[in-house]
Amino acid sequence: MTQDITRRSFVKGGIGAAAATAALGGGFVSFNSWSAAQADEAAREVKKAHSLCNSCSSKCGFTATVVDGNVMTMKGDEEHPYCDGTLCARGYGYAAVAYSPDRLTHPMKRTDSGTFEAISWDDALSEISSKIRDIIDTDGPEALVLIQDPRPSGSYYTKRFMNALGSPNVYTHGVSCNMSKVSGMTQAIGAGDFNSDVENANMIMFLGRSYADGIRPASLHALQAAHENGTKVVIVDPRHNNSCVYADEWIPIKPGTDLALILAMANVLVSEGLYDQDYIANYTVGFEDWASRLPEYTPEWAEEITGIPAETITRLAHEMWEAAPASSIEQGWRAAFGCAHKNSGETARALCLFNTLLGCWGAEGGAVFYPSVSAGKLSDSRFAAPPAPSGKILGSAQYPLAAASMGVATYALEQIPEGLVKGVIFYQSNCVGGYSNPKQLDEWVRQAELSVAIDIQMTETCLACQYILPDTSYLERLEVPEFVGGKVPVVALRDRVLDKIHPETKPVDEIFCELGRACGVGQYFDFTIDELADAQLKTVGLSLEQLKKDGIVAFNEKTYKPTPKTTWKTPSEKVQFVSEACEKAGFTPSPTWVEPLVMPEDGLFRLVGGKQTIHTHTQTANIAPLMAISEKYALERPWINAAVAAELGIEDGDEVEISSDIFSGRTKIKVTERIEPTSIYLPSHYGRMVPDQHISYGIGLSQMDFVPFQIEPGYGGTMSQEVLVKIKKVGA
């Protein structure tokens, strides 16, 4: 069947969105030039290739059409659980990174004068490996640390490399993202994630999470369907986020007080006997402890803390129960309690326990756990894992509730001046620019005996390091298969879409294989990425050749069916209203109120961050098509409540100065009704201070500059929104 593409469908559809941000020099492609290219297609070299987006951690699957070596279109894979056939604006725009003029193109070394000079791969590998061996000989492998934002091959090769050296210290970006959420939920239900069955729910409540801003397209599709189906959608957020277009009710809450709201709603249900008593009796432990603590947390008590009227809290609790079991509080992510406050971990724990009152676990429209598939054990001895390191990841004793799979990366860097960490390697991680206070992290990284950044563009982290190794773009490399859970779990492939653009760049697998050989552990890297990928796929009855052709394969036999959840991966194998680990870490056995580290006073506001639809924190700021949208619509501007602005004599578009105890910066302001009065909202993508990022340099302010270095007790999160600021009109 032939489908005619008109100018209107070009702009409206995925083809137009892809072409508009196609990687032809990172520029915009008009309909006329696109249609001319199609007309002349027979005379051109045309191929299709399957890949995974790299604009955020979701890694949505897509099929690219490549004409004469240039990406012309990108179409989301319909079977991928995260994109559901659609890529977001970030996904299309980020493709331009492959052709960015700011690409890192050669290995570099910082000189004594502080500038960088190009060096050969041989020299870089020789010098880095020599320093690694010296550190191991002098201080042991535990003095080496690696920090990454995990991607398919990165997750495999970084851990393999560090474990081969004998170090357990492999960290993710979790401290700045969802560390506390994952850790708190694990204490309650033995898992760090679940899914709310949004489109089949009677009622759904979101705490600070916005599907329309932190976009996973399939989630947004589900929210839209829920809205059309009559689901009651309640969004609790200091700002009126972009998902509110699908909401029945926006509840503006004071930041850091979500825990008080949950406790008060639980108080209403338990005091009135409105909870699933059979489920509580059969599949939980410690309910009596929590029930005995709840009476003091009345809606009236919570009103004073949250700013939400007591009658609203009571009504919401009743409505959640009336909608049960097809209702839940959605799991959230970074914004409200992923790593934001001193009480983030306990908020996550309480959220799971409130959902347990509803009896919604595994119910259609409730809180569910989708099936997943993973590669089996590889029999070929070449793929045998290195011996497990004898020690535990650094920071596990100090932050015993932190998810071991993530680790507290900021604590590891804090140990550099203490002499416990001597060498640090970063892979696709702008840790310095985005994990905590950049000035402090930069200082510590510069003190390390060895510091290496592996990246695609110059970042704040690259600037702090001694060596920079240039990665290929995600469009130029094959990676290990990505197994993705969902209603129908799949395995997807990031294949080579483009030939290598810059000859001296290397994909992550080659970089760590060569580092491994240079460090004397090459026996653990005696295979190619193609051989590894094929071996993993054969364990599930597939092959690399097949996945290259299909891009994504669904395991239909694993299709999810609503089933009540009755067993849990906790020590008791039940939902834990009480946690022995939490008690040992200094918390009450069941969740109680933990006040945020700072609370606003007269003249002071809490600075809150969050995503915008077109950006992923610092990663996408230097992408021309995306930053062009930011500049056109002044998206870099912080928000202030309109009534508060009037009291301060501030008007929309005025230049203001925002100051915390450690930083002060100036920018233009957005005055709006869409933010509650005690908060200033500052989007978390701007304020990049790397001159070599020519697109993003100097635009807006960075949220992290204002935040002191601090770590959440027990759980290890950054506490990225525990900061108070002053604001004044410049010249006033």
Describe the protein in words.
The chain is α/β, with parallel strands linked by helices and 732 residues long. It has 25 helices and 28 strands. The chain is globular, with a radius of gyration of 25 Å. The termini are far apart.
**Whole-Å distance between the termini?**
66 Å
Mean pLDDT: 93
Strand content: 15-25%
Percentage of helical residues?
A: 25-40%
The number of distinct helices, counting runs of at least 4 residues, comes to: 25
The tally of strands reads 28
> Cα-atom Rg, whole angstroms?
25 Å
**Order of neighbouring strands in the sheet with most strands:** 5-4-17-16-15-6-7
Main β-sheet description: 7 strands, mixed
Which structural class best describes the helix and strand composition?
alpha/beta
Shape: globular
Low-confidence stretches: 1-31
